[in-house]
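Q: How would the structure tokens look for this protein?
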Amino acid sequence: MALLTPDYARLIRDGLPPAQTPRRVLVLGAGLAGLAAAHALVRAGHTPLVLEAQNRVGGRVCTLREPFSDGLYAEAGAMRIPRAHTLTMAYVEHFRLPTLPFTMGNRQCYYYLHGRRYRIAEATANPDVLGFDCHPHERGQTHDQLWQAALAPLFERLRVGGEAAWDELLAEYDQYSTREFLEKCGWSEGAIEMFGLLADQEALMNSSFLELFREEAGRNYVDLVQIEGGMDHLPRAFLPALRQHIRFGARVVALEQTATGVTAHYTTPAGRFRATGDYAIVALPFPALRHVEILQPFSRGKQRAIRQLHYDASAKIWFQCRRRFWEEDEGIFGGGTTTDLPIRVVYYPDHGRETGRGVILASYTWSEDAQRWGSLGPEARLVEALDDLTEIHPQVRAEFECGASKMWHDDEFAGGAFALFDPGQQTLLYRDIIAPEGRIFFAGEHASLHHAWIQGAIESGLREAATIHALSQA
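A: Here is the predicted structure in token form.
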């Protein structure tokens, strides 16, 4: 019973048909992929056992409530949901989770470049004020206008060719990095620099162009929401159905399979244990899976995919502020400021207004920018980020109360923030990433083409649950 992607929303709503032969399924990891898979299996009458090394569900959906006070919180991982992500929104509706808008673009926010602060509205009205050395025909255009013009022929091919056009685009563009694509389009170095800085893509210029294009085609940054009270309400909503099926504090250290089953060896503070199932769904990031002993080695293609798949670094730094000075003093309600300072991007929270305080995302960085923050200790990060943010918002020093940071590339359970293809990796690795190995199946945002988004984790988890269910019906 293989499902087409649009059918997954129906699966979330109605569930799979009752299992004719219920199976015991090991699910490694209680992130959204593992939870979606286990939830679908339970509803169909199967018995999953979810082995989770941490003492919480959610994986890289992680809401921090400490050290913040007054009911405030910060999103260490996923912080926004595009309404176009129908599977994620289907679970939000299924669990009746209230949402709030997530503001992306706000013309009242700033560009802070070369020591000078500009309102985005000012720079949009006159892009040349920013001083980038662009070709004459590029002048007077914003980075987004240039970008949309470059993508327009590709969007037209998708409009005319539909889903089949993706195969053509993959064959033509998978070898290109974003920088190489812009060079192919004849952009000046000034325009490339402007786009890299203002679109927050400078650290990702050597990543696969198709990663960014898929996000644009999927409208990933248009009409976004967040879950009221914290994104962790989504993974926690699975607990009533799965609570008795999850083993927390269970770190999988080895995996073996026979012709009839799969055994996971795991450790807890109490010792070493084992669990056996008819099938297994591995919903661990590949950097974590790299440290699991595979007693019957995977195929060479799978081994290569586990070794080579690129995971990107990501760092976030937050400040709790005594008052919401960005709103009170500067009229900024949501959205983000972009800068060439090391903090790179600042986001202003839409939530928490009832307290008068706010947790501002003082720095959100990727790739090498994030790795540099990771080289500092936790206290040094706060000091350096406070110095940077003071250049943009001098009030912050007097209003700062406490802070926190999260380095996903230093997280032992993640090994990176998300999978991000290097040029050529979709063609080289993707089939092997998602291919089963005997009775072992693979899920997670990396096992989808929606890298870095909850949508990809859910899609992959439901895909593997449906596959195992179909095998049980045979």
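The two ends are 9 Å apart (CA to CA).

The first strand starts at residue 24 and ends at 28.

Upvote if useful.
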